[in-house]
């Protein structure tokens, strides 16, 4: 017969409760921290040779990057602009130095730290990119403009409503000297995204103006007279030949469009246009081709006066228009040579300013 153990025996044979740890003391904590620092110091002392080697590798790659950045003359030989070459030098040096940093961290077995740093740098770069978006856009636009060379120093260009001579191209903006002598700075991002007209690339330029004549005039004779006058003027080219076209037919007038070509390297566009208008006006006066005055229709709300009674009218003989002025052959053409006033001011500005200029003189 099996005898079961009593309850007292079971209580005596149970496992005793675990001992409760004593509360940590200040001295114990200090001892633990001291032990950790000693362990870190011993580890650092063991890794000191690798740390020195890693520092040497980074420094060597930094110098190597600087040496390679100064050996980038091939960038200019392939046609890269000054700003793009400068950016390329910085990128080469940065990449070579980054390779040295990666090798150094690999020696220290700290590539995980490098990955964390790259992550933080990426987030920081995105934040900085949003904050300085306009500056980055203008810088990249400056690189594109200096690479494409759409204009040179002194070229007359028009961007939107602004017209002027190009003074310089910087990494952030383009400086123009307007036709009234003021300095105008336009961000490069605006220039790269806007329509631009360069008046200087093609030396030939067409000038035109409009003339109103009466419908009673002989249009063929009027057109031939305009062309003949332009052929006689100094500064108007014979090839391409000047033209006179019928532009519009109105209720009480016919609009002629007079066109002529000039070489703007030798002839000023504004001057020759002014002289052409003067000569055509004189030629029409001599040929008795009238240029009608504006006609107005008046409506009277009150009763009109009685017209049954005769009204005395005194006729006056009109003055001869040709008598007031000399004949066309006697007219002397004014100076129409190219105006170099703004060009001289641009040259003076370049001489007295040391601001960065990415354009070649």
Automatic annotation (TrEMBL):
Localization annotation: Cell inner membrane; Cell membrane
Major localization listed first in the record, in broad terms: membrane
Region (Disordered) location: 309-340
A molecular function (GO) term: mechanosensitive monoatomic ion channel activity
Residues of the Mechanosensitive ion channel MscS domain: 134-200
InterPro entries referenced in this protein's UniProt entry, alphabetically: LSM_dom_sf, MS_channel_C, MscS_archaea/bacteria_type, MscS_beta-dom_sf, MscS_channel_2nd, MscS_channel_C_sf, MscS_channel_TM-2
Keywords from the named record: Cell inner membrane, Cell membrane, Ion channel, Ion transport, Membrane, Transmembrane, Transmembrane helix, Transport
Regions crossing the membrane: 46-69, 90-108, 114-132
Segments forming domain Mechanosensitive ion channel MscS C-terminal: 207-291
Signal peptide: none
Entry membrane topology: Multi-pass membrane protein
Protein purpose: Mechanosensitive channel that participates in the regulation of osmotic pressure changes within the cell, opening in response to stretch forces in the membrane lipid bilayer, without the need for other proteins. Contributes to normal resistance to hypoosmotic shock. Forms an ion channel of 1.0 nanosiemens conductance with a slight preference for anions.
Family to which the UniProt record says this protein belongs: Belongs to the MscS (TC 1.A.23) family.
Assembly, per entry: Homoheptamer.
UniProt-recorded name of the protein: Small-conductance mechanosensitive channel
Species in which this protein is naturally found: Pseudidiomarina terrestris
């Amino acid at each position: 017969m099996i005898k079961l153990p009593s309850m007292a025996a079971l209580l005596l044979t149970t496992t005793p409760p675990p001992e409760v740890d004593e509360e940590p003391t200040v001295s114990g904590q200090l001892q633990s921290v001291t032990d950790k620092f000693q362990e870190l110091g011993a580890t650092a002392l063991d890794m000191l040779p690798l740390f020195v080697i890693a520092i040497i590798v980074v420094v060597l790659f930094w110098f190597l990057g600087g040496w390679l950045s100064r050996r980038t003359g091939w960038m200019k030989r392939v046609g890269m602009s000054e700003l793009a070459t400068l950016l390329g030098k910085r990128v080469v040096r940065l990449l070579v130095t980054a390779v040295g940093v990666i090798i150094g961290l690999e020696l220290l077995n700290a590539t995980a730290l490098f990955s964390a740093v790259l992550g933080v740098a990426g987030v920081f770069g995105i934040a900085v990119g949003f904050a300085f978006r306009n500056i980055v856009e203008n810088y990249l636009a400056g690189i594109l403009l200096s690479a494409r060379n759409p204009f040179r120093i002194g070229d007359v260009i028009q961007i939107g409503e602004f017209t002027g001579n190009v003074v310089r191209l910087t990494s952030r903006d383009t400086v123009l000297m307007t036709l009234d002598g003021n300095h105008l700075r336009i961000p490069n991002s605006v220039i790269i995204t806007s329509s631009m007209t360069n008046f200087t690339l093609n030396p030939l330029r067409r000038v035109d103006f409009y003339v109103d004549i009466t419908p009673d005039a002989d249009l063929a004779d009027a057109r031939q007279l305009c062309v003949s006058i332009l052929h006689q003027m100094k500064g108007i080219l014979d090839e391409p030949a000047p033209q006179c076209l019928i532009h519009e037919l109105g209720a009480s007038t016919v609009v002629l469009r007079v066109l002529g070509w000039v070489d703007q390297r030798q002839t000023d566009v504004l001057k020759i246009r002014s002289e052409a208008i003067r000569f055509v006006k004189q030629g029409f006066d001599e040929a008795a081709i009238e240029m009608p005055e504006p006609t107005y229709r008046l409506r009277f709300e009150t009763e009109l006066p009685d017209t049954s009674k005769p009204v005395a009218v005194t006729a006056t003989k009109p003055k001869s228009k040709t008598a007031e002025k000399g004949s066309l052959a006697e007219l002397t053409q004014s100076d129409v040579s190219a105006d170099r006033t703004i060009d001289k001011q641009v040259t003076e500005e370049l001489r007295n300013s040391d601001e960065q200029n990415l354009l070649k003189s």
